[in-house]
């Protein structure tokens, strides 16, 4: 076999890993040279991506029939409707007899896998390895924003300062007054109102690295893997401090353990692992700050909210007037605009979240763009476009505030939601 040719083909494959025809060509070469396990790995890569690639299935049949007798069944599958090239004639010829077609007409992976298991050392299904090796490493970010970048929200900033930032910055004074520095901070509030943005700003204030992990990404269906993933996340956060470890959508993990039964016991183990990691945070302030965010704090496991864990909570309210002005300004400043009345827009967007405001600006920009295309010249984004967008974009914070009102009315026994209660009162919603 021409090794040089194979090497250059492999380089080409590394550059464009999605080129199935090239990959099958490499597989063909390897098969011709008797290097069937390598050929099979290439074919499997194609089949994982395009399960009905006829050429790949034909090649699989050819390789396998060379490995063992009788041949592994390979079902002739209809060509992929999304443009798989027609199979090479020899590949079709290599397809097995129709009596081996599984009942559902698809390729019998289970059977092929068990038969091949005896032939090959490596796992048959390419991709299993990756899945089992856990979450992709989280790249820490250098903090680029501070609270000064957060528009408005003075009450939220004051709460953040008093409950978290000031004690962390002045640890000796805090300790003298008996204030524990252990434990983390839970940000809660309606979706799209700046929880993630504020967490980043807190990291900036502390001059810490920012590592963000979305809890659903840590979840794995493999037994024990989620705990390992969580441990790996905490270990990499501890590796270099100061670091803010931000656990986003923490409710995915911290669901009330009492409501988890039977098959959900793995979830309970995972919650336990999270508690263990938080409890094992050494000393009073080891430079690892845990911040978490949720839209549903009432669904969290009580154990997560105990002293030393996420024991401080801060409500991130919908953007007030100053915040809305800052967000609107941010999203409009890089677009061609004319005659925008920012104070009027601020007044008319009272219940919009930060994400809604962004959507509003994008929608208005689309209108201006379409008008520009029709006129064949740049028509700047104006209040007319904004009006059209205002009619389309719905405020998303009200449904959240309404459900939160019920929580405050019926389950605020510990006074945990006093802050929410006074916000609702200030909005005359309670
Ligand atoms: N006070 C603010 N000043 C400037 N920008 C803000 C402010 N509040 C929110 N934003 C912007 O609004 C958008 C939504 O914020 P973010 O993603 O932090 O919300 P979230 O509460 O984490 O949402 P989710 O619940 O969907 O995770 C972001 O683009 C953010 O930059
Ligand atoms: Mg967020």
TrEMBL record:
Matches recorded under InterPro entries: AAA+_ATPase (IPR003593), AAA_ATPase_domain (IPR050168), AAA_lid_3 (IPR041569), ATPase_AAA_core (IPR003959), ATPase_AAA_CS (IPR003960), P-loop_NTPase (IPR027417), TPR-like_helical_dom_sf (IPR011990)
Entries under Gene3D superfamilies matching the protein: 1.10.8.60, P-loop containing nucleotide triphosphate hydrolases, Tetratricopeptide repeat domain
The entry's keywords: ATP-binding, Nucleotide-binding
Superkingdom: Bacteria
Domain AAA+ ATPase: 181-320
Pfam families: AAA, AAA_lid_3
Family designation: Belongs to the AAA ATPase family.
Protein name: SpoVK/Ycf46/Vps4 family AAA+-type ATPase
Source organism per UniProt: Paeniglutamicibacter kerguelensis
